[in-house]
Amino acid sequence: MDIMETIKEQVEGNPIILYMKGTPQMPQCGFSGRTVQALMACGERFAYVNILENPELRESLKVYSNWPTFPQLYVNGELVGGCDIIMEMYESGELKTLVQSASAADKSEADAG
Amino acid sequence: MSAQQVITEKLRGAFQVQWLEVENESHNHSVPRNSETHFKIVLVSDDFADMRKIARHQAVYKVLAEELRSGVHALALHLYTGQEWADREAPAPESPNCMGGSKHERQPAS
């Protein structure tokens, strides 16, 4: 499959997905570490991809979203931002509202299906 | 001209700057001494009015696309309008410390 299609499938198939350096348990970059902590503090399940393990995906993601750095958080298929934006949204409470509503919509869809 | 100077000049050329700080934070990361890979930018401009946060960041990334392709690895961006900056009680946030990621990477820069 074309890598751009793979990305599209990942971001649209997962209500909350974080592309990061390392893993939530062992982030390999301070910006990814800070972002994943904020996301975990919101208390919803999320998918993640360690882009250090997939150089091709890493390069293509920069093009896909016109965003040259990592981490990148997508909610409902849309790029929300990197570390600076996520931290601001976390501090204002906006992040929690966003991920909770994405997660709730996903659950009710699963129940209906 | 250093990358820091180029970044400063490009931003001044592209935005109506009310306040601009470009700080080299590369020494916080696992890169050779005197590197210019990690920068923190605080930019205050009314050009950001009516722009969502993500659009503000993308506007800066666009102006600095060449630098990001050729050695600059990460930008911590803190982008405000004049009013938002005046309303802020604290200075722009501190950047996180490195966790050694670039040691694990196959390519030195991305």
Descriptors for this entry?
heterodimer; A: 113 residues; alpha+beta; Glutaredoxin; four-stranded mixed β-sheet; 15% strand; B: 110 residues; 4 helices
Notes on the protein architecture:
The complex is a heterodimer of chains A (113) and B (110). With 113 residues, chain A is α+β, with helices and mostly antiparallel strands. Chain A has helices spanning 3-13, 30-41, 55-65, 83-92, 94-112, and strands spanning 16-20, 47-50, 72-75, 78-81. In chain A, helix 2 runs parallel beside helix 4. The longest helix of chain A has 19 residues, at 94-112. The two termini of chain A are 27 Å apart. The mean pLDDT of chain A is 95. Chain B is α+β, with helices and mostly antiparallel strands. Chain B has one domain (3-105): BolA-like (GMP Synthetase, Chain A, domain 3, 2-Layer Sandwich). Chain B has helices spanning 3-14, 53-63, 65-69, 82-87, and strands at residues 19-24, 38-44, 74-80. The relative contact order of chain B is 0.21.
**Largest sheet of chain B, order of strands side by side?**
1-2-3
Please report the number of helical segments of chain B. Answer: 4
- Major sheet of chain B: size, sense and barrel closure? 3 strands, mixed
Spatially, the strands of the biggest sheet of chain A line up as: 2-1-3-4
- The helix-strand sequence of chain A is HEHEHEEHH
Mean pLDDT of chain B: 90
Radius of gyration of chain A: 14 Å
Looking at CATH, the homologous superfamily of chain B is BolA-like
Q: Using the coordinates shown, work out and report the CATH topology of chain B.
A: GMP Synthetase, Chain A, domain 3
Number of helices of chain A: 5
What is the secondary structure topology, with strand pairs?
The complex is a heterodimer of chains A (113) and B (110).
Chain A lengths: L2 H11 L2 E5 L9 H12 L5 E4 L4 H11 L6 E4 L2 E4 L1 H10 L1 H19 L1
Parallel strand pairs in A: 1-2
Antiparallel strand pairs in A: 1-3, 3-4
Chain B lengths: L2 H12 L4 E6 L13 E7 L8 H11 L1 H5 L4 E7 L1 H6 L23
Parallel strand pairs in B: 2-3
Antiparallel strand pairs in B: 1-2
